[in-house]
Amino acid sequence: MNILHRIKKYRFEFYHFIILIVIISISQITLSYINTRSTQNLIGKSIDVYRWDTAERIADLTTTSLELLIQSSNFSSDDTKDLSSKIEALDFILNQQRLQKNIEDICLLFYDGSRVVDIDDGRSLYYYVNHIPVSTTGRPFRSQAKELFINSSESLFKNEAVLNKKESSQVFHVLVPFSIKGEVVGSVYMKIIPDFTDIMKVITSSSDQTGALFSALILFSILLMFLMTTFLVRERDQMQHELYQQREKQLTQKIEEQKEALFTKRIYHAQHKAEKIMGFIKDDVLNLTAQNFEAVRHRIVKYANFVGRVVYDMKNFNPPINVIRNVNFNTNLNAVIEFLIKNVLKRVYKKNEEYHFELDLDAGMPALYINEYVIWEIIEPLIQNCIDHNKNQDIVISIKTKYFPEEKISHVIIEDNGAGFNEEILQPDANGIKKLFLEKVTTKTKIQNSGYGCYIAYENCKRCGMKIDAHNGEKGAVFFIEIPHK
Fold first, then answer.
1. Phi, psi of 180 (to 5 degrees)
2. Per-residue DSSP letters for 144-156?
3. Structural domain containing residue 322
4. CA distances from 217 to 149, 210, 220, 368 (A)
5. Backbone angles phi, psi at 422, to 5 degrees
6. Is 121 helix (H, G, I), strand (E, B) or coil?
7. Contact by Cβ (8 Å): 191, 183
8. Chain centroid offset of residue 321 CA
9. How many domains is the chain partitioned into structurally?
């Protein structure tokens, strides 16, 4: 009853019937092929047996005819008047066999001392039987027959057994012991090619007709099933189509709302970063003097360019690659890190607070062909993440860069001595990406528009050809970036 209830609840779609029809058609084709092959195999084996038996029967009948003629009462008489008729009778038997399309060669093989002679005419055979000297010329094309006769002499002379050797599927070499007055004196050799083409055509034609009729019946049944299912499913499909249209409108509206919400959150995230930098610019302008003009001007230009980059990202979430990586860029990674620490992070988090920075920057770091503000968007969120997840703690954030000239790669390591990552967000998803780097994934509570910092850093690293990873170190959280110099 449970199975029946499940079947009743299941709704068969139109493609289910199509699949069923295809399966039935494939099964029918397979069965027809197997049936045809098995029928052909059976017929082939039967024909082979029949060919074998036919070859032996023809050879045995010919040998018997020759033996009966030779052993007749007047065959060995000295009356020369009957010589022509006797030779003619022998030639008739031998030539009559050659006229058949199944027989390609016929002769008699005898030992003449140590050599084997072949006789294929009545006169030579008559002389040989009556011990009259006759000159015979060996024929090269019968070398195979003579070799077979020599190899089978014991079986022919002692056992008086018929030898039938199959050369191919249709060619038979038959040796029948030839006796005179009960004594085997040689062998009748026949090369027979039984021809059953007409029989095979009749059998194959009958089999094909049966298969065609059976296939037509199956095809008609499938067509009838197809028409019935089409008629039954058409009305239901029309109702489903109307329902799907209504659902499509609802889903489209919902997706648009979600896009607007996501876009609003991204704008908020970008606006928050730009607002912070604009505050730095305002503060620098208010405190501008003749003595600090050059330093402040350099800093304001950097701030302004970063704000421009933020605005550009708000308009182009997937910017073209040439504005990210380009041989015209010549970015000093160490200088970007030092600028961020000195002119951004330390301006927000003063020295008297609980966050401290330790820098170990490799002076041999080569320049990067990457927009420095893209580097800024990678490094700054990672450092900010170390700060945001270790509130009210005495935290030391270490930033280290190292260049490996042999491998032509650089490493950037950002780590802290805080609480570390939650193990849950370090688990990879179905695509192998750790949840930490996914959009809107965060462990912060009661904070809106979060979960974008590490996601933006990951996306920018991917666009720049870098590899980024995160794990828990001995003391706290660790971000690891690998930069190829190729």
1. -125, 115
2. HHHHHHHHTHHHH
3. 318-484
4. 57, 11, 5, 74
5. -70, 130
6. coil
7. no
8. 34
9. 2
Please, what is the angle between helix 372-388 and helix 333-340, to 10°?
Answer: 40
Residues 308-324: tens digit of each pLDDT? 777 776 666 667 777 78
Structure tokens at 71: 């052993």
Residue of 452, 455, 461 lying closest to 481 (CA atoms): 461
On the 0-12 / 13-18 / 19+ scale of CB atoms within 10 A, 390 is buried
| 47-99: pLDDT as tens digits | 667 767 777 777 777 777 777 777 764 565 555 566 777 777 777 777 766 66
| 222 bridge partner residues | none
* 332 and 184 part of one domain: no
Phi, psi for residue 337 in degrees, rounded to 5: -65, -45
- The tokens of 315 are what? 């308009």
Task: Report yes or no: 192 and 59 within 8 Å, Cβ to Cβ.
Answer: yes
Report the alpha-carbon distance of residue 370 to residue 406 in Å, rounded.
21
Among 195, 217, 232, identify where a domain stops: 195
Q: Rounded to an integer, what distance in angstroms lies between the CA atom of residue 374 and that of residue 457?
A: 9
The residue from 195, 224, 243 where one domain ends is: 195
CA geometry: angle at 95 spanning 90 and 100, to 5°? 140
Q: Which of 120, 187, 181, 128 is nearest to 153 (CA)?
A: 187
**Left (φ > 0), alpha (ψ -120 to 50) or beta: where does 440 sit?**
left
DSSP 8-state symbol, 99: H
What b/e string do you get for 67-101 counting C-beta neighbours within 10 Å, with b at 16 or more?
Answer: bebbeeeebeeeeeeeeeebbebbbebbeebeeee
- Residue 442 · residue 451 · CB < 8 Å: yes
Tokens of residue 228, six digits? 């019935």
How far apart are the C-alpha atoms of 50 and 403, rounded to whole Å? 86
Does 173 reside within a domain?
yes
Q: Is 127 exposed, middle or buried (0-12, 13-18, 19+ CB in 10 A)?
A: middle
- Higher local confidence (pLDDT), 421 or 10: 421
The residue type at 155: S
What whole-number distance in Å separates Cα of residue 257 and Cα of residue 265? 12
CA-nearest of 198, 197, 162 to 53 is: 162
Distinct helix (H) and strand (E) counts, the chain? 12, 10
